[in-house]
Design goal:
Blueprint (H helix, E strand, L loop, with lengths): L5 E6 L5 H10 L3 E6 L2 E6 L1 H10 L5 E10 L3 H10 L12 E8 L6 H20 L12 E8 L2 E7 L21 H10 L7 E4 L6 H11 L20 H13 L8 E5 L2 H13 L6 E5 L12 E5 L14 H12 L3 E7 L4 H5 L5 E7 L2 E10 L3 H8 L4
Helix pairs in contact: 2-7, 3-4, 5-6
């Protein structure tokens, strides 16, 4: 493996590719290319460590190690059996394989995963007279198999557990938002830690914690205990420690306020537990408050929130979105507000024309991330409502 010129693929959610690409550039990635739900780039081993530790919108970071064409299962197995697997793992290490298959020739992804496992095990048995063990929950080495028609790509997963698992979540609500999606939403909304932030339906507090991490420039994985690359043969512990120290030195003070409202006491308890786990009790305030009975208290203010989804949490009030719009217009003048919703008719119900609409996915749910700008004065409101997308 050429550790000075690694080809790297970074997975993300649909709609967050430009945000991730900007993160990658700022962290020193070379030859950055936007793909569907991914960003490709090049960098050295230090950059690979840095992107794992710091990138907020990365889900998984892969390093391709082999690529070939296979037209049937026999050729697929033969190519993999001949590969030098002991360059990347030892016979005493455990391994697992994730797979993505998009091919008419190889339609069954689980079967192709089994064939790859057989090839790896047989390689070690043939060379060392010993078989490595497969461990799906917490393997030492994780490989990724990607088949696009007849093109096979084998990658090392440098992250291990998916990078949305930040390490601070202790409790979750009925419909928690993914940490990577939450951070991407905040960056799309322009949150940079200047001013004040409100999540008026905060649930278990994910948006609040991610907002605080951005405001303080905390590395996204500051709470993570382990990365996949730490089990690689070429792992440089001294280099990784230097990268962590450098990033920690950049952490800054935050002088604004980050506030969350919720009407559910259980959700507030969950948020308190997560905020305490993230050691942010002095930075984030949560309180029991009905958004529809609230008024603007912070100036200037950015609001980002994830209202309950019909598909995941029942909303009994038919006027739910209308009440959001009424609260915007009446109680939050001169405020920029964003919300994400899988109810694609939500804009009509809110009664304000969104100034921006961004298509995102929350899990498998197609959603819209909507921006609303509330101005004082009927002239500006009228102009906003008639503004084209």
């Amino acid at each position: 493996m050429d550790t000075e010129n690694l080809k790297i693929q970074i997975k993300t959610f649909f709609g967050l590719e430009p945000i991730l690409a900007e993160e990658v550039r700022k962290l020193g990635g070379r030859n950055v290319e936007l793909k569907n739900r991914a960003v490709n780039c090049e960098g050295d081993l230090g950059f690979l460590y840095k992107i794992n530790y710091s990138a907020r919108t990365a889900l998984k970071i892969l390093v391709p190690i082999d690529e070939f064409k296979a037209y049937n299962e026999t050729k697929f197995y033969e190519k993999l059996f001949k590969f030098e697997w002991d360059d990347f793992m030892s016979v005493d290490q455990t391994f697992a394989i994730d797979s993505t298959v998009n091919s008419e020739r190889f339609s069954h992804s689980q079967f192709m995963t089994f064939k790859m496992k057989d090839a790896i095990v047989d390689f070690f048995q043939n060379r060392y007279g010993k078989r490595p063990s497969i461990e799906t929950r917490s393997p030492d080495i994780k490989f990724h198999l990607h088949i696009d028609r007849e093109l096979v790509t084998i990658s090392l997963d440098s992250s291990g557990d998916a990078l949305f698992k930040r390490g601070y979540r202790r409790e979750q609500g009925e419909a928690p938002i993914n940490e990577v999606l939450a951070s991407g939403m905040l960056q799309l909304a322009g949150w940079d830690g200047k001013g004040n932030f409100l999540d008026p339906m905060c649930g278990s507090g994910t948006l609040l914690i991610e907002a605080a991490m951005i405001a303080m420039d905390l590395p996204a994985q500051i709470f993570r205990k382990r990365f996949g690359f730490q089990n690689w043969k070429n792992y440089d512990e001294t280099l990784f420690n230097k990268i962590k120290e450098f990033r920690i030195e950049r952490v800054r003070e935050f002088h604004g306020k980050i506030v969350g409202y919720d009407i559910d006491g259980r959700m507030l308890d969950a948020a308190d537990a997560n905020i305490a786990s993230a050691e942010m009790e002095d930075i984030i305030e949560v309180r029991r408050q009905d958004f529809f009975e609230s008024k603007k208290e912070l100036f200037p203010l950015l609001m980002v929130f994830n209202p309950p989804y019909d598909e995941r949490i029942s909303i009994n009030d038919d006027d739910f979105y209308k009440k959001i719009g009424d609260t915007f217009k009446t109680n939050y003048p001169n405020t920029l507000a964003w919300l994400i919703s899988s109810d694609l008719d939500a804009p009509k119900k809110i009664g304000l024309r969104p100034s921006r609409k961004i298509k995102l996915f929350n899990g498998k749910l197609e959603t819209r991330f909507l921006q609303y700008e509330m101005y004082e004065g009927t002239k500006k409101l009228h102009k906003l409502e008639n503004k084209e997308d």
